[in-house]
Amino acid sequence: MCGLGGGGGPARPGHPHPRLDRRRRPPGELTPIDADADADDDFEWGVWVSLSRPNFSRMLDLWTTPGREKEPGYFGWLSTELPAYPQSTKNLKTTVHTDVIGTRPHVHLEPTEHPLAVEQRDGITLHRVQEIADQLLAE
């Protein structure tokens, strides 16, 4: 279980949709954000990644070990279908990087021309974030 941040920022796992904060805007005008204070202004998807058994075991073995963030990344396959993209997001190649204890891993997509990989690499506009929110709220 890992997260994928837009623009290379931090990420949060386990959430199929961005969190929506109704407090910052008038009723009916929602802005997707991650409610965690350390997220700054990054747009983040919570995603699942499939790791090989050895990589998953290694990640678990080091989960509470100080310095785990120095561990090389683990290859994995993105296992979450994100509905905001015209092409499937499942099975995109990833590298999962652990961070300091108490934080969740970061997921970096292989640099391809898939729209999700482009948005992670180049960043995402506020207008695009609003498009994603509108699409998710309409579902």
In summary, what is this structure?
InterPro entries: DUF2199. The chain is of the alpha+beta class and about 140 residues long. Helix content is about 20%, strand content about 20%.
Describe it.
It is a single chain. Strands 5-6-7-8 form a four-stranded antiparallel beta sheet. It has one domain (2-138). The protein is of the alpha+beta class. The protein is elongated, with a radius of gyration of 15 Å. The chain has three helices and eight strands, in the order E-E-E-E-E-H-E-E-E-H-H. The two termini are 24 Å apart.
How would you describe this structure in keywords?
single chain, 139 residues, alpha+beta, four-stranded antiparallel beta sheet, 22% helix, 22% strand, elongated
Strand content: 15-25%
**Count the helices. How many?**
3
- The average pLDDT value, as a whole number, equals 77
Strand order of the largest sheet: 5-6-7-8
Tell me, what's the shape? elongated
Q: List low-pLDDT spans.
A: 6-39
* Content-based structural category: alpha+beta
Our count of domains comes out at 1
Spatial gap, N to C terminus: 24 Å
